[in-house]
Amino acid sequence: MSAARSFRSVLANRPLVTMASGHFAVDMYSGTFPVMYPALRSAYGLSLADVGLVALAYTAASSLSQPIFGMIADRYGTRWIGFTQIWCAMLFATIGFAPSYAILLVLAFLAGLGSGAFHPMGAMEASVLAAPEQANTSMSMYVSAGTIGFALGPIIGATILWAFGLHGTLVMLAPGLLIGTYLLRVMRRLPDAPVRRRTSRQGRAAIPIALVAIVVAVMMLRQVPVVGVESFLPTWYAELGYSSAFYSTLATVMILSSAVGALGVGQFADRYGRRTVILVTMTLTIPAVWAFITFPGPWAFLFGAMIGFLASSSGPLLLLMAQQLMKGSAGMASGLILGFGFISGGIAVPILGAAADASSIPAALYGLLGVVALSLAVAWFLPTELQVRAVMDRRDGMPAIPELAAETVVPGVAGERPRAS
Predict the structure, then answer these.
(1) Is the pLDDT reported for residue 404 higher than 80?
(2) Where are the domains of the chain?
(3) What is the CATH number of domain 3-190+205-408?
(4) Using an 8 Å Cβ cutoff, are 285 and 225 in contact?
(5) Alpha-carbon distance values, 394 to 71, 129, 209, 232, 399 (Å)
(6) pTM for the full model?
(7) With contact defined as beta carbons under 8 Å apart, do 400 and 393 qualify?
């Protein structure tokens, strides 16, 4: 099947597209937060540190709760995922009406829980909905939808704030409410989908902790250069004398390039294998990061796009790999991969900030080259497709024979959907 025809067939998967739409909406809320900071400072008389706590409340709730919600999804299923979308939308819509700073923090935290609940459940569903021969492409499409939502969040948020002020957050209720309601409707019909496979948990082989740890480590390390560059890009270019229009456009180009990269490598991974694609993209990330730091200015649009395309592209592949290694616990796998991936970026930013204060922003960013090199070294130990299939066979209680695996394993299915009790 050609790449174009394969992608068209993925887009024809209506349940998968609906799930991707939900991912778009949830991550759009996250992308909207930064443009709300000036309005929040003015409305509540906040310092930059106070505003940072609002962001931390949302991010921490979203990141740290994902493994927990992943375990809940493994136990009780994902049939009610639409409620997580509605919850996030309702809480985010009330942020502009908070009567005090303390209530604002609580609302941000609760909205983050909605995001934290959606992400492992949505990723779990995306893997189950994928056709076997399009597992990587389907997951890439799902992840890219969230990336595009995050990229467009600032534009949507700025437009709403300009038109309605801080109370315009109420308008943000609409997308989450509509998509969440539709998800609830769609999910009632999904249990009969032919791609689902139910296997007994009894006698299932243990989760390969070492392999899962490698996948999680690569996910955490690959996040650092992307978050590091995006976080300090505005400050650096402001110091260089560039306008906000220049560096905000540059940041958007980087984020959208990561969405394009995720879609592109998904199709390559279906053909050549995930480990190969991950190693190649990480290797090419090193000169891209170096060139971005060394040649600031208009050339940064090219090199920034390369960073987004290469460094972010492996995320969906690692997510699907973790789900398959933890077959039967796909929700937990999604929560670990996504949660720890978000956390690593949050940890890296203050470290890079301290390094930039001690020297300069470019000098601190050059340190990211070492992180990329380390991620490449760790990625060398990622399992091959045959190793992943062997693990899936053992988790199913089947003999790990490559010929048998080729006939019986469904790569796109990370585990059965547990029945809601």
Answers:
(1) no
(2) 3-190+205-408
(3) 1.20.1250.20
(4) yes
(5) 21, 22, 14, 45, 7
(6) 0.70
(7) yes
